[in-house]
């Protein structure tokens, strides 16, 4: 029997939701209509409807705008979530970088200003 490679990865069908289903669920949970979400996200109701029903995944700027409008990170409508342990590790890493970066930035500014 010859070995063949599928043209595309099979879609998971075991209870996973689509971007559109997650988007609809989030905006309804927030008590927003498509029109209200579109206004806050800076797009049209037609675009929101398309994202909910037709689009597999909208363009990245649209995902970001919708996330901001809904006050959620983009991982929620995208359905990508790190386990809690990994989330805490990322937060620790970011906090450590933020603690170090202002020192480097101030040192670089001081060197440019002749200090």
Coarse morphology: elongated
Order of helices and strands: HHHHHH
In the CATH scheme, the class of the largest domain would be: Mainly Alpha
CATH fold-level name of the largest domain: 434 Repressor (Amino-terminal Domain)
Question: How many strands appear in the DSSP assignment?
Answer: 0
- The CATH level-2 architecture of the largest domain is identified as Orthogonal Bundle
Q: Estimate nothing, just give the exact number of structural domains.
A: 2
Gyration radius (Cα, Å) is 21 Å
What is the CA–CA distance across the termini? 74 Å
Q: What fraction of residues sit in β-strands?
A: under 5%
Main sheet characteristics: none
Structure commentary:
The protein has 115 residues and is an all-alpha fold. It folds into two domains: 19-78, lambda repressor-like DNA-binding domains (434 Repressor (Amino-terminal Domain)); 82-115. It is built from six helices and no strands. The protein has helices at residues 19-29, 34-41, 45-53, 60-70, 75-78, 84-112. Helix 2 packs across helix 3 and helix 2 (34-41) crosses helix 4 (60-70). The longest helix has 29 residues, at 84-112. The protein is elongated, with a radius of gyration of 21 Å. The model is unreliable at 8-15 (pLDDT under 50).
């Amino acid at each position: 029997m010859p070995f063949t490679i599928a043209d595309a990865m099979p879609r998971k069908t075991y209870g996973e939701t689509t971007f559109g289903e997650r988007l609809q669920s989030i905006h309804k949970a927030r008590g927003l209509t498509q029109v209200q979400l579109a206004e806050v996200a800076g797009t049209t109701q037609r675009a929101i409807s398309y994202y909910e029903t037709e689009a597999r995944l909208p363009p990245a700027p649209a995902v970001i705008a919708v996330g901001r409008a809904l006050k959620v990170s983009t991982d929620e409508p995208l359905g990508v979530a790190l386990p809690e342990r990994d989330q805490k590790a990322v937060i620790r890493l970011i906090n450590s970088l933020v603690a170090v970066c202002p020192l480097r930035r101030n040192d670089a500014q001081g060197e440019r200003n002749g200090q």
